[in-house]
């Protein structure tokens, strides 16, 4: 127990201001390899901005993001992804005219050394297709693999986005409200699928979620954001008992 | 040669140029702000304004009457086009608008050639504005002074219109959140038609005002549309103040560039645009793209 | 398989055309094929990457002027000059694309237009290279290497153009179905997502613009010795618009469609110009009609299960209006 567990992702005093508003306020956080951590907080707590900061979509005003001991500051979105961080979006973002299989294959292709190849491509497509199909199967989407993504049900579209991220075999998976907009039954089904996926404890996941049931089912650790700042950090039970969190969720803390 | 006089007249020159560019840029940016579409035919509406202005002067005999008739006709035509054609495209992506309005540019150019002929048409400035004044010993056309003034007046009028009137409020609200405005009981489609008409009408005013300077010609449309694009790219798509700043910047670069670097004048405008794009890809006052 | 037979049949007919056609028709057909080459190059941008360009005439003009100058001022044979001019156009395009891709969407389209007009203005001033408004005249079809002069004749030149067109079609087909092409398709459907998957989308866009310019330059480089002259009209924005019309009316994103669009354009403009000189008016109307009612173009209408149609139905029946899915 003497050696501290390896932190895969470290946020150090990460801050982002938009004009006069501090969207993310000196957030310091560690995600260890193999950990499933949820970031929760009321609307406008800065959860999505935090994701955008980690993935290079938005540049930080101050502070640093370190991934596997490398500073990600100044890297753009594609470069962050190439380092092994894959994400899903709060609002489903797919290639609607491609089939589910083509969606997953294009995601997997991004990690292929010859993704640029301007001719042929049987080998590249073969490798990427195999990994894409495997990801589809893990999320139970094999039966809709040949349908255009735009024609899938909303629930399947949400899962397809996760499958695309998974097809990239990321070292860190960022899930932005994976059950957003799903019905009660769809949510239950999606949560079971995700729980099955994370059961082996190999994947490192950072999860933003509104639905507390989903959070407590999936996450082993929880960070609570309120008005951009971390107000609690710990195991689900510890967070549940935290007085600040109680007040923040009851609308107090003014 | 009096340097101060030279400087002042060149600045006034640039201001008058900026006024014309502003009429173009503000219309395009207003339309973009509300409808999220780019009107490729904006230069063609500008050109139409000049030709309708020419005919109005010929028929009514008054430049001032033309200044009212031409924008109304041009704006009315714009609103009708929105009603008849563009309305069908709101569910399509932006390229459909660009292509349809590009097609309109071709049609308008050809129709104008058929109606008015290929030769450039002279439009005389009204008597009261056709002389020259001396500013610190430098001669300066009164008409250009009038243009600079008109630009400033119209900028203030548009600003007040957006800030103070009910339609202005609706326009601003629609550009923020069209669905909400629609839900609150205003027909957003009418606002869109009106805005498209107003934008085209502003281009029409610009066309009438430009005619005494450059004559009404078929080259107006492509030149105007490119200048306009440069202005809104510099100022930021959809920003009212941005279009004013863009127009000023481009006008000053054009006027002083032509004087000091006659061979590079044209490239200078693009150089400014390039610099802005590299530093702020969304334009000076644009939202982050 | 059907497509392959169709292609072979069309090639055969075109290859036999010089035997039966009068010289005037041969000239028209050669020009139509050159325009087809040009339109196909634009399709890589417009149809496959959704990069709408209003300045593709720049590619054509660059190729034509480069080719014209080399043929007029050097002894290099036509067969060498044409590819050199195409590559030159592609290299210039890297600079153009680097700038234009700073912006995206509508602003990208505006920048392409601005760039083409800048070149147009430069061509007017740079008399020693472009001949200003007079243009370059008397461009020869220099023979060689080894004294090959077959391409100097009408039929020979026609076969050169036909060969280039076929080569370009095969090249573009390989390109769009390659891994690179798959990424282009991703950019077309959802650029933000493609970026977040780890693709440097800007580099892909620059690459596809460079390829499209090289192929467009090839068309221009063939036009200069075909017509014997090159002038600023080749760089004018109206020409950029015309080639865009060919692509859309023929069927964007199909490669074959733009060739048909070019042929249609040549045919209709020649028919119309015999009884009216304002055929551009009708083209504007035809173009708007296609954009409004048949965005899949002629080729899309001909092939019932066209990809364009399937795409449209996928988009329209998508939950939440489809377009929302593509939004970043």
Task: Summarize the helices and strands and which ones pair or pack.
The complex is a heterotrimer of chains A (254), B (289) and C (328).
Chain A: E1 7-18, E2 21-32, E3 36-40, H1 47-54, E4 62-67, E5 70-71, H2 77-82, E6 85-87, H3 100-109, H4 122-138, H5 154-167, E7 172-176, H6 184-198, E8 205-208, H7 212-218, E9 221-226, E10 229-234, H8 236-241, H9 243-249
Parallel strand pairs in A: 3-8, 3-9, 6-7, 7-8
Antiparallel strand pairs in A: 1-2, 1-4, 4-5, 9-10
Helix pairs in contact in A: 3-4, 3-5, 4-5
Chain B: H1 3-35, H2 42-60, H3 63-84, H4 94-116, E1 132-135, E2 138-141, H5 142-164, H6 166-176, H7 178-183, H8 188-214, H9 220-235, H10 240-260, H11 265-279
Helix pairs in contact in B: 1-5, 1-8, 1-9, 1-10, 2-3, 2-4, 2-8, 2-9, 3-8, 5-6, 6-8, 9-10, 9-11, 10-11
Chain C: H1 2-20, H2 23-49, H3 57-73, H4 78-100, H5 106-125, H6 127-130, H7 154-176, H8 179-189, H9 191-196, H10 201-227, H11 237-250, H12 256-273, H13 279-293, H14 297-302, H15 307-316, H16 323-326
Q: Describe it for me?
A:
The complex is a heterotrimer of chains A (254), B (289) and C (328). Chain A is α/β, with parallel strands linked by helices. Chain A is built from 9 helices and 10 strands. Chain A has a 6-stranded mixed sheet with strand order 6-7-8-3-9-10, with helices on both faces. A 4-stranded antiparallel sheet of chain A has the order 2-1-4-5, with helices on one face. The model of chain A has no long low-confidence stretch (mean pLDDT 87). With 289 residues, chain B is mainly α. Chain B has a two-stranded antiparallel ribbon with strand order 1-2. In chain B, a hairpin with a 2-residue loop joins strand 1 and strand 2. In chain B, helix 1 packs antiparallel against helix 10 (240-260) and helix 6 (166-176) crosses helix 8. Mean pLDDT of chain C is 85; it is low at 316-328. In chain C, 74% of the residues lie in helices and 0% in strands. In chain C, helix 3 packs antiparallel against helix 4 (78-100). Chains in contact: A-C, B-C. The interface between A and C is large, with 47 and 37 residues.
């Amino acid at each position: 127990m003497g050696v501290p567990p390896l932190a895969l992702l470290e946020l150090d005093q990460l801050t982002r201001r938009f004009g006069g508003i501090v969207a993310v306020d000196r957030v310091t956080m560690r995600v260890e390899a193999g950990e499933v951590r949820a970031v929760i907080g009321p609307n406008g707590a800065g959860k999505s901005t935090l994701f955008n900061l980690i993935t290079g979509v938005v540049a930080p005003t101050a502070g640093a993001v370190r991934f596997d001991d490398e500073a990600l500051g100044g890297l753009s979105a594609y470069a962050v992804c190439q380092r092994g961080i894959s994400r899903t979006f709060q609002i489903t973002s797919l290639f609607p005219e491609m089939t589910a299989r083509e969606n997953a294959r294009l995601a997997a292709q991004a990690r292929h050394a010859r993704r640029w190849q301007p001719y042929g491509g049987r080998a590249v497509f073969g490798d990427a297709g195999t990994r894409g199909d495997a990801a589809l199967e893990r999320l139970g989407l094999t039966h809709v693999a040949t349908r255009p993504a735009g024609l899938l049900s909303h629930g399947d579209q949400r899962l397809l986005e996760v499958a695309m991220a998974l097809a990239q075999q990321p070292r860190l998976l960022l899930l932005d409200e994976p059950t957003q907009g799903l019905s009660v039954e769809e949510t239950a089904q999606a949560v079971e699928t995700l729980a099955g996926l994370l059961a082996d404890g190999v994947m490192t996941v950072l999860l933003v979620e509104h639905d507390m049931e989903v959070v407590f089912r999936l996450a082993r650790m929880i960070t609570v954001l309120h008005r951009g700042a971390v107000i609690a950090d710990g195991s689900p039970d510890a967070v549940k008992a935290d007085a600040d969190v109680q007040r923040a969720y009851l609308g107090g803390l003014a | 040669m009096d340097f101060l006089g030279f400087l002042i007249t060149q600045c006034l020159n640039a201001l008058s140029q900026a006024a014309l560019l502003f009429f173009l840029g503000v219309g395009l940016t207003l339309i973009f702000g509300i409808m999220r579409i780019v009107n490729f035919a904006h230069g063609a509406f500008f050109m139409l304004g000049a030709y309708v202005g020419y005919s109005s002067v010929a028929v009514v005999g008054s430049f001032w009457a033309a200044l009212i008739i031409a924008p109304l006709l041009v704006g009315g035509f714009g609103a009708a086009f929105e009603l008849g054609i563009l309305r069908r495209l709101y569910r399509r992506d932006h390229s459909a608008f660009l292509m349809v309005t590009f097609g309109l540019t071709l049609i308008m150019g050809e129709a104008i050639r058929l109606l008015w002929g290929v030769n450039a048409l002279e439009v005389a400035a009204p008597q009261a504005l056709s002389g020259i004044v001396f500013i610190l010993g430098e001669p300066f056309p009164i008409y250009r002074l009038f243009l600079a003034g008109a630009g400033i007046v119209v900028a203030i009028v548009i600003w007040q219109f957006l800030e103070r009137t009910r339609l202005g409020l609706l326009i601003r609200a629609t550009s923020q959140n069209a669905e909400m405005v629609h839900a609150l009981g205003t027909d957003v489609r009418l606002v869109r038609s009106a805005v498209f008409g107003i934008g085209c009408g502003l281009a029409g005013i610009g066309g009438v005002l430009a005619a005494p300077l450059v004559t009404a010609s078929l080259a107006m449309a492509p030149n105007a549309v490119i200048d306009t694009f440069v202005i809104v790219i510099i100022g930021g798509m959809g920003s009212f103040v941005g279009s004013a700043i863009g127009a000023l910047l481009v006008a000053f670069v054009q006027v002083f560039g032509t004087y000091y670097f006659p061979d590079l004048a044209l490239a200078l405008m693009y150089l400014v645009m390039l610099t802005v794009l590299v530093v702020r890809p969304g334009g000076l006052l644009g939202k982050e793209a | 398989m059907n497509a392959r037979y169709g292609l072979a049949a069309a090639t055969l007919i075109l290859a036999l055309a010089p035997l039966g056609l009068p010289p005037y028709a041969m000239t028209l057909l050669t020009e139509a094929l050159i325009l087809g080459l040009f339109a196909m190059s634009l399709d890589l941008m417009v149809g496959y990457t959704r990069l709408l360009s209003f300045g593709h005439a720049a590619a054509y003009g660059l190729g034509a002027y480069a080719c014209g100058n080399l043929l007029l001022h050097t002894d290099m044979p036509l067969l060498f000059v044409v590819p050199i001019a195409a590559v030159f156009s592609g290299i210039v395009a890297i600079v153009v694309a680097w700038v234009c891709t700073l912006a995206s969407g509508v602003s990208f389209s505006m920048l392409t237009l601005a760039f083409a007009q800048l070149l147009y203005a430069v061509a007017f001033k740079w008399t020693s290279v472009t001949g200003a408004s007079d243009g370059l005249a008397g461009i020869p079809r220099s023979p060689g290497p080894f004294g090959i002069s077959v391409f100097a004749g009408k039929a020979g030149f026609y076969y050169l153009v036909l060969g280039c067109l076929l080569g370009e079609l095969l090249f573009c087909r390989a390109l769009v179905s390659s891994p690179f092409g798959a990424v282009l398709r991703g950019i077309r459907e959802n650029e933000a997502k493609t970026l977040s998957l780890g693709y440097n989308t800007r580099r892909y866009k620059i690459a596809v613009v460079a390829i499209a310019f090289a192929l467009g330059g090839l068309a221009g480089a063939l036009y200069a010795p075909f017509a014997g002259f090159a002038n600023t009209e080749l760089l004018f924005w109206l020409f950029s618009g015309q080639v865009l019309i060919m692509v859309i009316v023929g069927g964007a994103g199909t490669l074959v469609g733009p060739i048909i669009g070019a042929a249609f354009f040549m045919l209709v403009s020649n028919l119309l110009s015999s009884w009216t000189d304002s055929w551009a008016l009708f083209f504007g109307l035809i173009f708007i009609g296609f954009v409004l009612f048949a965005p899949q173009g002629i080729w899309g209408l001909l092939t019932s299960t066209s990809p364009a149609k399937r795409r449209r139905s996928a988009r329209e029946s998508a939950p939440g209006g489809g377009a929302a899915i593509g939004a970043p």
